[in-house]
Amino acid sequence: MSVTMTAAQTQSESVEQHPSPFSWGTIAWVSALLAICYAPVLYRLAAQWYNDEDMGHGFFVPVIAGYIAWQKRDQIAGRLPRPNWWGLAILIWAGAQLYFATLGAELFAARTSLVISIIGAVLLLGGKDYLRIFAFPLFLLFFMVPIPAVIYNQITFPLQLLASRVAEGAISALQIPIIREGNVLELASQKLNVVEACSGIRSLLTLTFLSLVYGYFCEKRLWIRAFLFFSTIPIAIVANAGRVTLTGVISEWKPELAEGLFHEAQGWVIFMVAFAIMAALHQILLRVARLTEGANKHELTPA
Questions:
Q1: pTM of the model
Q2: Where along the chain do its domains lie?
Q3: To the nearest whole number, what is the mean pLDDT of the chain?
Q4: Could you give the percent of the chain with pLDDT greater than 90?
Q5: Cα separations in angstroms, 160 against 117, 176, 213, 259
Q6: Taking residues 60-69, what's their average pLDDT?
């Protein structure tokens, strides 16, 4: 008695005989190995998230990236992994980067090597298709790494001067006497020093990350996502300059409100205003997109 087997049955049995290298067990042990190798890096990274107010959003980055990756699980459900050995090359590169970064006490290189290792593991175990599917959440992971101190200092001081300059002009327009010396605003009641914390870098780092997440969940058009991402730079700058201006005006009325809890709460309120401006800009771009698409459809409709 002969038994015929369909191609589908043969393929199914082949998959069963050769378990997927991207199974949950594999993910678990690879994650454990990375956690062991990068334990010191992860510890210091989490400590900086906790202590550095500019990186407070770092705790949310891996959680949100993991949630987005989990949402994409259906896209790989019907795909057989195609392991790519270039992933192993990337893992070796990341390991070498971690080694030399540890020797040179270079935190940024050590921390980015963690993200590079995860990218290499995905490519090695799943292949190019898996890497393409998980490209966005993997890219988000870079936002959990603080920027190097050299670049940070090069960015913050110009932002301090810009915020001081804008605040000086706004306060002068309100007929309040003010003198600016660099990043120091001298009012009749007191001097206001626009320090690094008031440079706007905190709002800029968090807002750029949120713009990507917001665009992913709320918008499908890539050009609008890109526009929202780059718009966070002027929005954060204007919002921070408004905060400095508001602080200067309030300090003329009640100087003690220029610092302490009220000043911190003011920063959160200004940040929410900046996020609201970005959301409002998104609505404007949506209307422009719909008008443009409607006009194009009208032109293509035969008379």
A1: 0.83
A2: 18-146, 150-297
A3: 84
A4: 47
A5: 36, 21, 27, 17
A6: 96
